[in-house]
Amino acid sequence: MLISKTRSSIWARSARARPWPSFWIPGRTTVSGIVLPKTESMAQVRHAAQTNIPIIPIVETAQGVLHLAEIAATPGVQRLAFGSLDYSLDLAMTPDTEGADLVLDHARVQMLLHGRVAGLGQPLYGVFPGIQDTAGLRAAAIRARDMGFGGLLCIHPTQVPVVHEAFLPPLADLEWAREVVRAHRDNGLAAFKLDGKMIDAPVIARARRLLVRYGHLVKITPERLAALEEQFRKRGLYLVMGARFVVVLRQLNGLIAGSAGMPFHRFLAANVVGALAWTAVWGAGPYLAADVFVPFWHWLRG
């Protein structure tokens, strides 16, 4: 059994078919989910589902790809994952060739389609074997993101920050999304022109999805995003000034203020005031507090 731990959850990967271990870990009642390798049938997933925790089946054989529909539809499955290395071995591919990439992409598309039809989370792309090839890993992660995958399996801790960065929406796309959402809110039209291009319902939906996708990385749901936009319209100046003191809001306040249509000169003024207040509190504050802290420290030491 292998354990994968993040800040918020622990997932266990086990190759054991029977019996399933209890997955008890000292300090925690249970793990958050099971990563099920070599998944080839609904029966395997149902067996793992007896633990009553989410499952991520890794599909890495021809048999598994042919049974993707039933695997994805099995209760308890959170999302699918692709084991590209074992799949290449199973089909006797020549690694890192155009032909192999074509066959692998066919399986990846099947995972995207079946996962979407089953209402699962975006699937995981698979692993990138080059531990020290940061550029190659980043390119693979960006390709996975562009294809519609929700993540990439990592085989070494050093790969994690590279993948996280690659899956962030590009800043240019976020700027575009902000302009689309703001223009749609201002004109109220179902279709309009922006920067010489037609904007209609699917494009507006994609723009909002980009904003929500970025917010998801810091636990911002669509409902929270809408609520924040409404708050910015009502109390924008105060929120921008106070955002300096809140970690998540400090990063998002410009994005949300822009999508809420806050005039730039007001945003800039509020940001300057907030920055000055933050500097005063965390700069001058501790400095002045030293006059109180030092005598108190001497008193504690007797």
Radius of gyration computed on alpha carbons = 24 Å
Arithmetic mean pLDDT: 80
The assigned structural class equals: alpha/beta
The largest pleated sheet is described as: 5 strands, mixed
Across the major sheet, the strand order is 1-2-3-4-5
| Uncertain stretches | 1-7
Question: Could you say how many structural domains there are in total?
Answer: 3
**Number of DSSP-assigned strands:** 7
CATH class of the largest domain: Alpha Beta
Could you spell the SSE succession in H and E letters?
EEEHEHHEHHHHHEEHHHH
Number of helices: 12
Strand content bin:
5-15%
Can you put this structure into words, describing what you see?
This protein is α/β, with parallel strands linked by helices and 302 residues long. The chain has 12 helices and 7 strands.
Features:
302 residues; alpha/beta; TIM Barrel; 5-stranded mixed β-sheet; 12 helices; 7 strands; 57% helix; 8% strand; globular
At a glance:
This protein has 302 residues and is an alpha/beta fold. The protein is 57% helix and 8% strand. The chain is built from twelve helices and seven strands.
Topology of helices and strands:
Elements: E1 2-5, E2 10-13, E3 33-36, H1 42-48, E4 55-59, H2 62-66, H3 68-72, E5 81-82, H4 84-90, H5 98-117, H6 134-147, H7 159-166, H8 171-187, E6 192-194, E7 197-199, H9 201-216, H10 222-243, H11 247-259, H12 264-300
Parallel strand pairs: 2-3, 3-4, 4-5
Antiparallel strand pairs: 1-2, 6-7
Helix pairs in contact: 6-7, 8-9, 8-11, 10-11, 10-12
